[in-house]
Structures are given as C-alpha cells and as structure tokens.
Design goal:
CATH architecture of the largest domain: 2-Layer Sandwich
Oligomer: single chain
Helix content: 25-40%
Bound molecules: zinc ion
Largest sheet: 4 strands, antiparallel
Order of helices and strands: HEEHEHEHEHEHH
Strand order of the largest sheet: 3-4-6-5
CATH class of the largest domain: Alpha Beta
Number of domains: 2
Radius of gyration: 27 Å
Length: 217
C-alpha cells in the first residue's frame, strides 16, 4: 500500500515537471519571437529582398565593383529583373490612358557608360563610368511620344503623377538638383519598389534625402 502511494506521487511529480517544461517553452517562444518555421531561401534566386533597391549611385557614390543584378530583356534594352512586373504594369496603365511608354535607355555596362562619356562634348551632361545610375539596371529614360509637343509633354507629366504607384521615382527633379547633383531630367526614372516610391512621392523626397532620413546609425 505504501509503495502504491509512492508510485502515484512520482507519476504526479513527473506530470508536473513535464507541464512546467512545456509551459516555459511556450512562454519563451512567444517572447523571443523566434519562428519555428525554417526560413527557406533559394540561393540562386534574386528577388526584391536580396536586391538593394535603394542603392545610391551619384557623383559621390560609386557603384560597388562587385555589384551584380539579374537583367532581363525588354524590347531593345535590358532592365533589372526585379522591376519587370511593375514596369509592364505601368506600361499597361499608361496605354489605357493613351500614353505609350517607350524606353530610350536603361541598363548600361561600365564600358557602355564610358563610351558615352568619351563621345560627348559636354562632360557635365554625362556621368563618369561607375557613377551612373544606369549601371544599376534600376534606371530608365523614357522617350516622349511623337504627339507630345514642346510644352505639353504628356508622357512625362503622366509619369510624374503615376510612376510611384509602380515603384518608380522621378530621380532628378528641378528643385532638388543641389541634392542630386544632376539638373532636371524629366525622363529619368529610378525603380525603388512600391513602398519606398510611395513614401518619397508623398513626402516629396529624392533618394538622397530618403536615405538620410531612414539611416540607422
Ligand atoms: Zn537617365
């Protein structure tokens, strides 16, 4: 009889200890925020989270030598693969409003940028190789339509009002040349992704300002 009592006491104790361990596990899992799901990542894939959509390239900030981005063909040019869905979406939306978006220039290799620089007479108008945003694959120069006249540049006006919805920002506004180092270029758009583009559009920020505000020191 005495042995049976001991056995019951031991079983109850064991149950209490297991419950305690379980409770503490639940408690710590909830508090340290660790996910029980393993993070799976395809090392060969390049998606939005792996591409630095906010990379800064300007006359003071050179593109890194080991910079790499997946490119894809669009008509006659190459653009960063990450932007293709948004770019096509933007083109369709513009077409629905009678605007035909065509691309004058997009990705340029370092050599291509150097060639343009070498050939132009006014060196202030073109960035030196390594310092052009076009080398990131994330910049696009849009052409005007043939029926755009000198004053009513409807293609560029449409872009200035709508591009941010598709993740593109007007990179060189007239009133921010002192910050960007580049004078007004109504045709040059830069892909930064939809969230950042919306924030920059709503707060009237160029990339230099946006990065400064969001910098983590
Ligand atoms: Zn450009």
């Amino acid at each position: 009889m005495k042995e049976k009592k001991w056995l019951i006491t031991l079983i109850v104790l064991a149950m209490l200890v297991s419950l305690g361990i379980l409770a503490s596990r639940l408690f710590f899992d909830n508090n340290n925020g660790t996910s029980l799901e393993p993070i799976r990542r395809d090392p060969t894939a390049q998606n939005n989270s792996e591409v630095d959509l906010l990379i800064l390239v300007n006359k003071d900030s050179k593109i890194p030598d080991d910079y790499h981005i997946e490119l894809t063909k669009l008509d006659e040019v190459e653009v960063a693969r990450v932007m293709i869905n948004d770019l096509v979406g933007m083109r369709d939306a513009a077409a629905a409003e009678g605007i035909s978006l065509s691309v004058n220039s997009a990705y340029r290799s370092k050599a291509e940028q150097q060639k343009i620089y070498d050939e132009i007479a006014d060196k202030n108008k073109v960035a030196l190789s390594g310092y052009s945003e076009h080398e990131t694959g994330l910049a696009i120069d849009f052409a005007l339509q043939s029926d755009d006249d000198g004053k009513d540049m409807k293609t560029w006006i449409w872009l200035s009002r709508n591009a941010y919805k598709y993740g593109f920002i007007h990179r060189y506004p007239e009133d921010k040349a002192h910050l960007t180092g580049i004078s007004w270029e109504p045709w040059h758009y830069r892909y930064v992704g939809q969230n950042a583009a919306r924030e920059m559009f709503e707060q009237d920020l160029v990339l230099e300002e946006y990065l400064l505000i969001n910098a983590t020191f």
